[in-house]
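task queued by scheduler; priority normal; single chain, no ligands, no partner chains; default sampling; output format set to structure tokens
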Amino acid sequence: MQQFDNGVSADLIEGAVWRKSKRSAPGGDCVEVAELADGGFAVRNSRDPHGPALIYTRAEMVAFVGGAKDGDFDAMVA
């Protein structure tokens, strides 16, 4: 199982299946997420699919998604 560091080129994450939200803007201003073999996640900018990917553990993503669902970040985009 491969391990990846933050900032790894998204091209180096072999077998990644990148997904984006149905809420993504048609202009392409969105992020894409891929689940990694170790249970973590890679996140990349959809406008730069060959650029760097940020790597998060499953626990980090669970905390982030939970916070988003709870409205913890609403003030940031108001």
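post-processing summary
- The longest helix spans residues 58-70.
- The CA atoms of residues 20 and 32 lie 5 Å apart.
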